[in-house]
Amino acid sequence: MSNSLRAAYDRRLQRGEIAADAAQDRAVTTLSRLEGDLRRWTGAGFNPFGRRETPRGVYLYGPVGRGKSMLMDLFFAAAPVGRKRRTHFHAFMAEVHGDIDAWRKGNAASRKARFGVSKGDDPIAPTAQKIADQARLLCFDEFHVTDIADAMILGRLFEALFDRGVVVVATSNRGPDDLYRDGLNRQLFLPFIALIKARMEVVAVAGPKDFRMDRLTGRPVYFSPITPETTAAFDALWREMLGDDVEAPARLQVLGRSLDFPRAVGGRVRATFASLCAEALGPQDYLAVAERFHTVLLEGVPKLSSARRNEAARFVTLIDALYEARSKLIVLAEGEPSDLYLQGDGAFEFERTASRLLEMRSANYMSETPTSA
Predict the structure, then answer these.
(1) What is the residue range of 198's domain?
(2) pTM of the model as a whole
(3) Count of domains in the chain?
(4) What is the domain-level CATH number for residue 182?
(5) At a CB cut-off of 8 Å and minimum separation 6, what does 88 contact?
(6) Could you give the percent of the chain with pLDDT greater than 90?
(7) Element (H, E) at 330
(8) Which residues of the chain have pLDDT under 50?
(9) What is the number of other CB atoms lying within 10 angstroms of the CB of residue 373?
């Protein structure tokens, strides 16, 4: 069909928008299989409790920038399913926790209004039914588990979704066996890994070329001073990094607190110096940012002095976290790294940060793979 995944992928190849890649081609073949299965499945009628009739989903994994999100977009557009949803996994889990909390705290009337049912002590079944009623196909980008609260409910939640005939497609930087590695009580998470392997076809997308980082090759990634021209260049690079993706809010849970990022997509985030360094954030927050995002666009970095020593200290900690994670950093600042903190308390210590900022804009650093990949 003209709107099929394979046809859409081939058109991009023909237009030179992407290069031929054997790993991507294998993923397209697998997703095309699912596209056909879905067409036959929806055409034959839907039995929400017919596990055998439900097509097997797909789990794509591999390093950053190998085209997983692009393939997901093409598949989602081609998927012949009326009720379908594509979302970032962390956003989805935030909604799930909200539903679970609402069930536990709600009375019969509020449960009935939100879930359509009101009885029972276990929130998993009504939460899964609510999700299944909204989407028969769920497509997750950036499937990644670090939070114990997520880990402890995923197995039961996804088993309930599969039982209700929900098909799942996911992209991840980690293979199933590496999910929640070294996490607390990981043995309780292992059945979920087995469930993924049983209900989803696992495909590695680990070609040799980082397509997303290609967009940064030879490009300026540090813009200063802040002028209409440098701001326009920074904005243009963000749009180029997004490609066809759409910005969406992202939320991180750190030590029981929420960190909200209004402008994010996948593993990329655009944030201001004020939001990250003028707020009372600490090392755990910045480690979470580096773990969650492989590319950070940071704008509005001012020149600093002892009057802003706390902001400067947080900036140092942020850069350290991103540097150690080998995260990519694109900066819009009032001055070059060596000019950001010339005198005052902490100016001497800032010299290391200035050195790291210089290294982080180098071609060698930009060619490294982030640890969040």
Answers:
(1) 5-204
(2) 0.67
(3) 2
(4) 3.40.50.300
(5) 140, 141, 142, 248, 250, 264, 265, 266
(6) 57
(7) strand 328-333
(8) 1-2, 44-46, 48-52
(9) 18
